Amino acid sequence: MFNKIAPYYDFLNHFLSLGIDTLWRKKTIAQLVDSKPKFILDVATGTADLALEANKQLHPEKVIGVDISVEMLEVGRKKISKKGLENIIELQEGDSENLSFENNTFDAITVAFGVRNFENLEKGLKEMCRVLKQDGQIAILEFSKPKIFPFKQLFNLYFKYLLPTIGKFTSKDPKAYKYLYDSVQAFPDGDNFVSILENTGFKSIQCISLSLGICSIYIGKK
Predict the structure, then answer these.
(1) Cα gap 19→105, rounded to integer Å
(2) Domain coverage including residue 104
(3) CB 138 within 8 A of CB 108
(4) Mean pLDDT across 47-54
């Protein structure tokens, strides 16, 4: 599915969110500025938007992005090449639940809109914890479910009906944006996700709500 929508992915992200997704990524990476990580892993990197933002704000020595979708990675590599960042940002095909890195490798790990797609959420988070250095930080950006009336009801109408209709005609994959709604509804957001992070090895976790609860940033340490 992700391979099919790769050519349209960036456009639809920006269009369907009215460009707010760019601000969400900026705020996510901003949480790591004080820790000055030099070696960063971007899990489920997709087309590398978060990896590029990490390079822009954090000026690391290396960012490695991992994703299972080869077509998404190809789009990301073109963006990286256009900016002349091949020596800093490296994209690799790989399974987020079976990371091919040694224990305690990275200073920070980032994820944007990826953890809800893990087949086994706990396994993926444990892998992230394994390859993160002691006291290293995680920054996870993920959709959540708004709770404020009437925004909750209006957003659900948009997310469940209008967004999949637009996605169907622009991405040529009618299932992709229905999957988006279904995956967000199934994802254990907020306090539930904080508990899962704690149970998979992370500590000092904060949950920062964005845009009336559409998204949340989860910050933690190993």
Answers:
(1) 33
(2) 18-145+187-221
(3) yes
(4) 97
Q: Please tell me the distance from the alpha carbon of residue 59 to that of residue 106, in angstroms, as a whole number.
A: 15
DSSP 196: H
Taking CA atoms, 71 is separated from 9, 87, 99, 109, 170, in Å, by 11, 21, 19, 22, 17
92: which strand partners? 66
Would you place residue 115 in the very low, low, confident or very high pLDDT band (cuts 50, 70, 90)?
A: very high
The CATH number for 210's domain is 3.40.50.150
Phi-psi region of 220 (alpha: psi -120 to 50; beta: other; left: phi over 0): beta
221 phi/psi in degrees, rounded to 5: -130, 160
Read off the pLDDT of residues 6-27 as tens digits, 9 standing for 90 and up. 555 656 666 666 679 999 999 9
Q: Nearest to residue 202, comparing CAs of 112, 153, 139? A: 139
By CB atoms closer than 10 A (0-12, 13-18, 19+), residue 141 is: buried
CA-based radius of gyration for the chain: 17
